TrEMBL record:
Coiled coil: none annotated. HAMAP family: Meth_synth. This is 5-methyltetrahydropteroyltriglutamate--homocysteine methyltransferase. It comes from Lactobacillus helveticus CIRM-BIA 953. The gene is metE. Residues 425-748 form the Cobalamin-independent methionine synthase MetE C-terminal/archaeal domain.
Amino acid sequence: MTTTIIGFPRIGHHRELKFATEHYWKNKINQEELQQTAYEIRKNHWQAQKDAGIDLIPVGDFSFFDGVLDTANILNIIPSRYKDLHLSELDEYFAQARGYQNGSETVKALPMKKWFNTNYHYIVPEFSKETNVKLVGNKLFNEINEALEQGINAKAVVIGPYTLLKLSRFIEDTKPRDYVEALVEAYKQIIDRLSQKGVKWLQIDEPALSFDVDSVEKQLFDDLYDGILAEKRSTKILLQNYFGDIRDIYNDVTSKNFDGIGLDFVEGKYNNELLKQNGFPDDKILFAGVVNGKNIWRNHYENTINFLNQLNTKAPVVLNSSTSLLHVPYTAEDETKLPGDVKQYLAFALQKLDEIKELDNIYHDEADGKIALTKNDNLFQSVKHPVNPVVHHRIASLSQADYTRLPERSEREKIQKKEFNLPVLPTTTIGSFPQTKDVRQNRSKLRKGEITREQYDKFNEDKIVRILRKQEEIGLDVLVHGEYERNDMVEYFGEKLDGFVFTQNGWVQSYGTRGVKPPIIWGDISRTAPITVKASVFAKNHTDKLIKGMLTGPVTIFNWSFPREDVSPKESVTQIALALQDEVLDLEKHDIKIIQIDEPALRENLPLRKSNWYSEYLDWAVPAFRLVHSKVQASTQIHTHMCYSEFGDIIKAIDALDADVISFEASRADFTLIDQLVAANFQTEVGPGVYDIHSPRIPSEKEVEDLIKQLVHKLPIDKIWINPDCGLKTRTEEESFKSLQNIVDATKKVRSEI
Ligand code: GLN
Ligand code: ZN
């Protein structure tokens, strides 16, 4: 055995699982039909891995929604409010993932969170007093049976207990410690059952070891695994980490009774240092993650082989992906519209299987290894990313002044207050209005060539005029054009910037049945024509109120794309920032006086280890944002928006973006962030959301009034804006209009009382 992968994409070659699942939800197919589709997807995926020459094939990584939820359910970590619905096992599972509604009976979904530093989201398990951890679910074992019947050399896969505890929510005064014993028992039983079936390996995923691990957490890890590994068993245990290195716990992990240890040598560069300093035990197998599971470029074989040859161990090495291949699309073979030579440099999931096999051949001096090595070498010799000398010149001539907006914010604040003359507690929205069916149809008609560009634009312009009238009628102070022209806030900008390429079928699961199609950075990035100017100016010409222009920020565009590996993140993000600077200045030139630069992905992509937050991320991310707006006049107001209010720990960095106003999601939170902002002497004006746009619920005027009063109580009144949590694109018009009316009325009421 010399090759494996950590996991495979689940959604299917043509997103069959997505469509089948959504049909099932709409009662268009029954459970057997859905299960049949799932069965076939698994079978095809295992066969594809076998055909590619992968020795040890992950089983149990398949999921109808999310692997963390799968593991929680196998272990009976299911809150009773879902059990009380008395649904079938699958429906109970979906109820946890997406909520349940049947007449008057409604149960909310479990929360969803971003999976480490990826754009995948997991369902957050909930532990409470009633949680009785025990092995109850058969999903893993059923899939193992299936695989064994098909002659697949299966490696069972589960999320490990440490990661499960780290990612879960604990209510009613419970804590991770309370469940150690029960978890140890349950995992032991899993191992027993697998041993009985003759399964050779169990992969236990512990990505949470890539976070900082303190002494208390280390003890937790010890207690879990000393228990789980206490007895002899015939199934071998692989401890699999990814998304970084395990520096805080390396010696602990390597001294335990694991049969194999899986390390990520792509993102976890430091793992190699750990091996150099401490060695790696000869009696274990090293699963070396050398093929990048998170990016789509071909592996450079020569570098990888050199790397493998210098590893400081005599242990047998199994070649592995660095993470699950869940984070890359299915196959590059389908792409027919990529510019000339791009496709040959791409490796999606299927191509990565071949790469692992080829690397294995080279590593073990197999005859066809040499051919593969030469071919790969030629490929890397030939790669030519388009170069734009103007961009390089611009970056070379940047100085500190380009990152500094003058005059300073407090001065600008006075100038802007005078210029805009807005009432206290100005009201606005975050940008998008509902993308109703007709809006999506209009876009698809253009794509299919059923309407002309003029007809398409005319439709959107009518929409803009209509939504402006609506916003005026509601009484909002700062209006937006509604973003009807955008399918997606990153793809839309990528398509209009030089340097990006797009796939037709490059879907990556984001959560459940939802996917994204990230743009690929291929050449130097620049703006070749105005992007949002036309829509913003059109809106400005159709209202007497202030219009807020709307852009996606450089960090978000970068984070939600597949980046180049031959160029530093700093270089790429600076290129994007300069392109957006052109857009901002263009908007300003056209008399758009307020410009919002959205950065929802800024907080999301903080490195997993706190000590890397600045050095590996914020030190280039914050300057990139500043570069976008540093050249505008004092009277132009720059807004930014972040989706989560979880930036308490990087308040200084957020203030250092030097925006004039920031809006963020806050309506569900208890406003603790506001106290933190006050304590940190936060200078940016703030618009904490007062309307939860993720829910169909319409907040009452009274409810919003109370929230506003809390804000006024905590913050200087001239620093507060009133707005929803986020864009309204996924809501219905009815919900949005009523909610916004309540917001505006509540604001007026508070204004009248001060
Ligand atoms: N302006 C965007 C919108 O309103 C912001 C979206 C986001 O923050 N994700 O849709
Ligand atoms: Zn948002």
